[in-house]
Specification:
mainly beta, Immunoglobulin-like, 1 helix, 18 strands
Length: 203
Amino acid sequence: MKLAAIAAAALVPALLFTTNASAAPQTVTYKLRASAAGQSSDFTLDQGVDASAPATAAPGSAVVVTIDPAPNTIPSEAGGRQVREIKGLALRLPVPANSTFTSASLSGGSGLGGTPTVALRGTDVVLSVPGPIRGGANFELPTVTITLAAGASGAITTKLGGTSYDAPGLTFTAVVTVFGFPIDAAAKGYPDPSPVLTTTTIG
């Protein structure tokens, strides 16, 4: 089994998100590519996502978008190999058209092995979790709240980031043990298809 495929198999159950927001959850399929030691493996990841935002907003008013992941567990082994940890997880959320970024904040979260952060990077809001999160550990990603200012007209549609392997919206590194040695397997990917999570009509 390829080293990258081992890491990929380890991370699949760790990244299934669900939330308690009022909007109906959606299942998003990420196309992912993991690479280690000159090898690569392509795979898919089904990720549940629930996002909420107001249905309508006046021009110039605040529009608050909330994403609230559920608790989860990192597997302790995959394919007979020990999963030591995951680290460097980043999830990108583009700032929608017809809006201006105002702020982003985090609340809650546990078992992350480090302090998560959220920041505007270019045109994306990025949730970063440095980790490490040990194999077999329970964890919960923080709730992400993004405040936007509505534009003059049109609609504000929120989506997950990423359009290709070269422009990924989800990245992370898995550290697995192969023949007694720790191996880093870097994974990156994008949602395909990429559904609309929320729509706010300006008017």
